[in-house]
Amino acid sequence: MTTPQNATLSAEVSDFILNCFVRSPGWQFWLSLPLSILCVLAMGANATLLTTIWLEASLHQPMYYLLSLLSLLDIVLCLTVIPKVLAIFWFDLRSISFSACFIQMFIMNCFLAMESCTFMVMAYDRYIAICHPLRYPSIITDQFVSKAAIFILTRNVFLVVPIPTLSARLNYCTRNIIENCICANMSVSRLSCDDVTINRVYQFACGWTLLGSDLILIFLSYTLILRAVLRLKAEGAVVKALSTCGSHFILILFFSTILLVFVLTHAVRKKVPPDVPVLLNVLHHVIPAALNPIVYGVRTQEIKQGIQRLLKKVWY
Q: Where do the domains of the chain lie, and which CATH numbers do they carry?
């Protein structure tokens, strides 16, 4: 009798099995506690930030609307990945349905790309604030944020939809065990009986087109910002100018560093344990989500004061 846990199926696959750290069972125990703490921290910190920006009229400004969008993306990404990973660790619930797997694949790819695009728009916001401060109120408006949000959504949904669509159209007739904790595109596609060259090429092209173009524009924005800052001659002007974009730059480092390490680890996967890329893939969905609101909350005086007023209302 054939069971879902078997690697060979007599019919087409109806669900998948996530082989999450089965080679390193000790990892499951030690990772479950920090992952659950990071997940709760990410949910709480982002919810607090969103609530503060929503309730504080002084924070109803384009920069904070963009930050709200980033927090919303972080919450969705975290909820898409971490609860399922913890369910595997705690209850051994490794099975995931065919449709749920490809929905998770779409959300992960789309929302990561949307987060990258949001960072790019925020970099442009900082560029205008530093390099063209007098024109900032007329350029970075609520209407600009609305158009930016539509662009972020449209661009990434349009380009990412083919990734899960191409994978879902493949025939999964022999294997159903995914060597990963999540439904990553190539981890799933390589289980197919069909040729996956198109899937591989499209994901590579899409990834570099979206994330690559965003990183180039972010780098260009900060190059222009740095050049403008170095021309400032007023005492303390350089420190003040850099402090206005310091939080944003730190968030970009969190996002890009983990992503870069993940890419490099995949490039030399024969020289590292196979569970290392899997771990980095999971952490990339929770560490930035947990740290982003904390960095802005600590470094931005207006947000810090807003959170303090919110807490006073709750407690008193």
A: 15-315 (1.20.1070.10)
